[in-house]
Amino acid sequence: MMTETFIKKKMFLAGKWVSRDKEMNVHNPHDNSIIATVPAANEDDVLFAIEEAKDGQTIAAAIPVHERMAIIHRAADWISENKELYAKVIALEGSKTIREARKEVRRCVETLRISAEEARRIYGETIQFDQMPGSENRVGYYYRFPVGIITAITPFNDPLNLVAHKIGPAIAAGNAIIVKPAPTTPLSALLLAEAFDRAGLPPKVLSIITGFTNDMGEALITHPAIRMISFTGGLATGEAIMKKAGLKKMSMELGSNSPVIVLKDADLELAVESSVSGAFWAAGQNCLGVQRIYAQEEIYDEFVDRFVTLTKQYRVGDKLSEETDMGPMISENEAKRVENWVTEAVQKGATLLCGGIRNGAYYEPTVLINVPANCKIAKDEVFGPVVSIFKVADLDTAIREANQVPFGLQAGIFTREVDKAFSAIYKLEVGGVMINDSSDYRIDAMPFGGVKGSGIGREGIAFALQEMTEPKVVCFRLLT
After folding, report:
1. What is the predicted pLDDT for the residue at 107?
2. pLDDT tens-digit profile of 211-258?
């Protein structure tokens, strides 16, 4: 069932493909079989990448915008031409089904196309210096210049597209970038490096360093030559990075415990279908995943019945099968963690309506009701296929409860009443509100990020470009 040829991959170090004596195994979470080995980089590799990136940032900044655009488009072309290979690698090394993986490949191509187009829109503005008395003979403007060297640290759940969200705008803006992909899913990032290598990206501009974090030291975070860190991952790791990094630009997307509100006037069929998909996409390992649903009491029972019925129809199994809806979690340990969280909730009074069964790394889509506020699954990010449904009297109660967590990435609300939609828009403490969609909806061009423990800054290509550039003011004092 999913046996594949074992392969050895090299890592992409400052534009060269290199091996190392020490290697790291890449496992298929379906059965924990080894599907590949990649180099296990050490601290010397990191320091070398940084030193080479010092030249790389000069090279990248000097690439004309039209050539940056052409390189990124050529990389996108290569991925599009080999989309089934990319999808299969995503599915094998991670949790996604082949259908989910194909969607990620399409999004990656779109992310790169947008990056290429946004390269031409790194604008500045003229400044009216004569607004200040005594400055009548001064004229000027500001323009944006690249920050320099960027460290990107990426997670396992979108191993191709989230890396593209770092590399695409970084190159479009004229930066050098060093990427450390998740140890569990390095192959997709290396395939992305291959696309840029084939596209003619100059050496030293990009590195993809694979291996174990403990072997690499902390230079990717602390080295003074690194001018920006773009991190996607967990809150605790993000906080630790910020404490160590020093004076650097930061872009951090740190996950969530996303709420969805379903009011009595909602289109229930749409609300159920969207929320089930939003809860169990990629086995629930999704920062936007639906974790809490607040259904108004008038429709609560019907909503729960419909939600459970559709959840039970979810097909769990072989990731490469076209019929599969959900694959395994990224590891058996992660599945055990989710199992423990659900057990804790049930022991404290929650009712398990379906799921709650683990088989290795597989954890069945799970629905809980009557979840008490004092358990982990109610307040933390479960990052697994578990959703809790709560009964609420009205919109204000739902909003108040939705805000009672230390996260605020995105939220969804289902209603036909525009005034209630706008009430939610203004009162929900999140970075994005999706009306008549679940919290899981996103396009790659929109600003993406959160408030509170969900992060700092925004991704989405045009917005990432702002983060990856700095404004420089130019003022001419006229001598005539």
Report:
1. 97
2. 999 999 899 999 999 999 999 999 999 999 999 999 999 999 998 999
Q: Which token pair is 333?
A: 């340990």
For the residues 363-370, what does the mean pLDDT come to? 98
State which residues form the domain around 425: 258-444
- Is residue 449 in a domain? no
Among 197, 193, 185, 152, residue whose Cα is nearest residue 170: 152
Q: Assess whether 439 and 378 both reside in one domain.
A: yes
Q: Give the per-residue pLDDT at 6.
A: 66
- The C-alpha atoms of residue 119 and residue 241 are separated, in whole angstroms, by 29
Average pLDDT for 369-386: 96
Nearest to 361 by CA among 28, 8, 114: 28
Spatial distance between the Cα atoms of 118 and 317, rounded to a whole number of angstroms: 40
pLDDT tens-digit series, residues 75-97: 999 999 999 999 999 999 999 99
- If asked whether residues 13 and 79 sit together in one domain, one would say yes
* Whether 385 and 369 share a structural domain: yes
- Residues 266, 373 within the same domain: yes
Residue 479 lies in a domain: no
Note whether residue 188 is domain-resident: yes
What is the pLDDT at residue 39?
Answer: 97
Quick one: 121 and 194 in the same domain? yes
Q: Of 54, 13, 58, give the one whose Cα is nearest residue 224.
A: 54
Check whether residue 272 and residue 237 sit in a common domain.
no
pTM of structure: 0.95
Pair 195, 271 in one domain: no
SS3 state at 244: helix
Q: Could you tell me the CATH number of the domain that includes residue 318?
A: 3.40.309.10
Please give the DSSP secondary-structure letter assigned to residue 203: T
Gap between the Cα atoms of 410 and 400, Å rounded: 15
Degrees to nearest 5, angle at CA 292 with 287 and 293 = 125
Residues 424 and 466 grouped into a single domain:
no
Residue type, 314: Y
Q: Please report whether residue 1 resides in a domain.
A: no
Please answer whether residues 105 and 87 qualify as being in contact, where contact means their C-beta atoms are separated by less than 8 angstroms.
yes
Handedness of CA 313, 318, 322, 325 (dihedral sign): positive
Return mean pLDDT, the chain.
96
Q: What is the CATH number of the domain that holds 12?
A: 3.40.605.10
Long-range CB contacts (< 8 A, 24+ apart) of 76-84? 76/109, 76/112, 76/113, 76/116, 76/195, 77/199, 78/194, 78/195, 78/198, 78/199, 79/105, 79/108, 79/109, 79/112, 79/191, 79/192, 79/195, 80/109, 83/109
Report, as residue numbers or ranges, the catalytic residues. Answer: 253, 287
Total domains in the chain come to: 2
pLDDT tens-digit readout, 173-213: 999 999 999 999 999 999 999 999 999 999 999 999 999 99
Q: Are 339 and 21 in contact (CB under 8 A)?
A: no
